[in-house]
Amino acid sequence: MKIGFTKMHGSGNDFVVIDNLEGGREIGPEQVVRLCHRRFGIGADGVLLLEEPGDTGLDARMVYYNADGSRGEMCGNGARCFTAFALSRGLGSGKELRFMTDAGALTAAVTNGRYTIQMRPPGDTKLDRTLELANGPATVHYTNTGVPHAVRFVDDIEAVDIRREGAELRYHAAFAPKGANANFVEIRDDGTLLIRTYERGVEDETLACGTGVTAAGIVAHLIRGVPGPVQVNVRSGDTLTVDFTVKGQREVENVLMTGPAATVFTGTIELAGKVTTG
């Protein structure tokens, strides 16, 4: 099967984006793994499918798969790329797009080449949890910004062993059975955040994670008093912005995440056979 694709990235978090508006693409986990494989395929952190919205009354549906073939509820950087891709195909109003994800409906807008996603309010937030880790007890915060995220504040972001410590948090029993993305956050003197994220479904550090940036910005405000809009510097060197309002003590709403989206290249690929990654 030959398919056309567009390779895109949001702050270095990269995706294979496929137009499936006609509904003729049957892409399973093995094919997702092949597409995302950085030696045997195109190479990406995930796959995005642009599909018809059905009877939702929205402009489109975003279907997202992680690089390991598992289906993801949502992806913040992917949502920005998806918005740019859908708008380029004439969907939405030209400046705005309303679309469905497995985490619910989202609204996006573009201004001066930067894409703002109206994120869903965070849910199931649990702050100041003490977890037993290999290096001893640590304070870890949890919230769901479309997908589950653990947030841990550190003094030196560069000292984090991201693969070991990230995997430990991602698979911790406290977040079973689905697990959580693991975010390590350093707060600088000027109030900006530095972040490194170990992503569930990629099973490694990514150069940026939009939902992780959103979780970090909200938690940094609630726990450390960092004022919004929060500027978050991701591993690729880009800066994403997280804005929101807080009602009462800790009820967060009107969450906005803003950043770039870029097309890398377009092409076609033939999908056949298996890819072994072990």
Give a concise summary:
This protein has two domains: 2-113 and 262-270, Diaminopimelate Epimerase, Chain A, domain 1 (Roll); 123-258, Diaminopimelate Epimerase, Chain A, domain 1. The chain is of the alpha+beta class and 278 residues long. It contains four helices and 18 strands.
Alpha-beta content class = alpha+beta
Strand content: 35-45%
* Main β sheet profile: 18 strands, mixed
CATH architecture of the largest domain: Roll
Describe this entry's structure for a reader.
This protein starts with a strand and ends in an 8-residue tail after the last strand. The protein is built from four helices and 18 strands. The chain folds into two domains: 2-113 and 262-270, Diaminopimelate Epimerase, Chain A, domain 1 (Roll); 123-258, Roll (Diaminopimelate Epimerase, Chain A, domain 1), CATH 3.10.310.10. The protein is α+β, with helices and mostly antiparallel strands and 278 residues long. The protein is globular and about 50 Å long. The protein has helices spanning 29-36, 76-88, 162-170, 210-224; strands spanning 2-10, 13-19, 46-51, 60-66, 71-72, 96-101, 104-111, 114-119, 123-133, 136-144, 148-153, 181-187, 193-199, 204-206, 230-233, 239-247, 251-259, 262-270. A hairpin with a 2-residue loop joins strand 9 and strand 10 (136-144).
